[in-house]
Write a structure and sequence with these properties.
Layout: E1 6-10, H1 13-25, E2 31-34, H2 48-60, H3 67-85, E3 90-95, H4 100-113, E4 120-124, H5 125-128, H6 145-151, E5 156-157, H7 160-176, E6 180-184, E7 187-191, H8 197-201, E8 209-210, H9 211-222, H10 234-246, E9 250-254, E10 262-266
Parallel strand pairs: 1-2, 1-3, 3-4
Antiparallel strand pairs: 4-5, 6-7, 8-10, 9-10
């Protein structure tokens, strides 16, 4: 009898590249699928077009008018749904509960599988690598390939309790309909899109500074701070700077399309 195909599922380009290197290092040539979707950001219970428009405006910095990005997102979304409901392959999901992007991707996968989880396995990277003191990875995307290779034997099926707790959590977050899902010390929670604004404004002064510096300082400060635990992406923070300018809270010099060619200061 032919062995059943196993497909490894990740949620980001870094995770896909790292896992490919890890599997090859142990002679494993099984297929890897990147179900990139950034489910920690943007509305979820809306049409696909509405979701892509939000992500392009707030997250990808392209104003919603990039056909190539739009088509890629649609294609990946279709493949994601097909994989989630395919009963003829074994699926191994790699994610970290301390990485909002990966954790939300895993939760959305369970939602789309709609109870069909007989051949669904996971490698929760943080738990799998807990004995590796040198590994500070929050998820598959930030773990070195050698650690991912070591984590492979920890693959295990999704238990009934794990399935119920995670689907209950995602159902609640979907129903809340917030723009963001953020990781805090209290777990994964809904948040408005202005959640990080005050942390970012703390770095804006009365003199002009490069927007990239403000964004970089925010990235470095927010991760690990107790009330935030984990931050967001550079392009999301840049979109929030533009919104703060529209609100009249900061003044702007230079380009609105490139954070490296823009400078901001507090409104006088």
């Amino acid at each position: 009898m032919k062995a059943m195909e196993n497909i490894h599922i990740v949620f980001g380009h870094s995770a896909a590249a790292g896992l490919k290197e890890a599997l090859l290092s142990v002679g494993n040539i099984e297929k890897i699928v990147n179900c990139w979707g950034d489910y920690q950001a943007g509305p979820i219970v809306v049409s696909l077009d509405e979701r892509i428009n939000w992500l392009c405006e707030h997250y990808y910095g392209v104003g919603g008018d990039d056909p190539e990005l739009r088509n890629e997102y649609i294609e990946r979304n279709i493949e994601f749904s097909k994989l989630a409901t395919n009963e003829n392959v074994q699926k191994t999901i790699w994610y970290g509960e301390l990485c909002a992007n990966e954790y939300c991707g895993f939760l959305e996968f369970l939602h789309r599988a709609d109870g069909e989880r007989g051949m669904l396995y996971t490698v929760e990277v943080c738990k799998a690598l807990s004995k590796e003191n040198a590994c500070l990875a929050l998820g598959a995307g930030s773990a070195p390939p050698e650690y991912l290779a070591k984590a492979l034997p920890s693959r295990q099926p999704v238990s009934d309790a794990e399935y119920k707790s995670n689907t209950d959590l995602w159902r609640r977050l979907r129903n809340e309909g917030a723009e963001l899902r953020v990781l805090t010390n209290d777990g994964l929670m809904s948040a408005d899109e202005d959640y990080f604004d005050e942390a970012m404004l703390a770095f804006v002064t009365l003199t002009y500074q490069p927007a990239a510096r403000i964004v970089g300082n925010t990235l470095g400060h927010v991760d690990g701070v107790r009330e935030y635990y984990q931050g967001n992406s550079d392009m999301f923070y840049f979109s929030r700077l533009k919104e703060l300018h529209r609100q009249g809270r900061i003044e702007w010099q230079g380009s609105f399309d490139s954070m490296r060619e823009a400078a901001v200061r507090l409104a006088s």
